[in-house]
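Z., the sequence and structure:
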Amino acid sequence: MFPGLCRGHEHLGVLAGGGGHGHALYGGVDWRHCATTLEALDTLRSRGFTLCCLEQVMESVELQQFPVDSSARYAVVVGNEVDGVDPAVVDACDVCLEIPQLGTKHSLNVSVSAAVALWHFYSKFLPHIR
């Protein structure tokens, strides 16, 4: 989990993960350590989450084209800025989402990408929250 996202989750009303057992530093969200990302994905899937990988691959769905079901639960997986998401993790996810971009450089800072993706999901849930 990226430290910058640990704080942002409470503003969007979403759950955040982390690197150990206990509560997140902000907002008191329960979290637990998983030895591997694949273990974390298995846990999330067993709890009914749709696993969404934010990665540019051949089968990616453009973020704005992804139909968000306000009654569903989603987990968004992001990778690091150099290597992206591990291929085994990509394969373990239910869908890969991509933020469409113009120009020659087709990447954003990972925290910016995560924020854009989380906003997409939040904006679909917002009418049902208020």
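The chain has four helices and six strands. Residues 6-26 have pLDDT under 50 and may be disordered.

Let me know what you think.
H.
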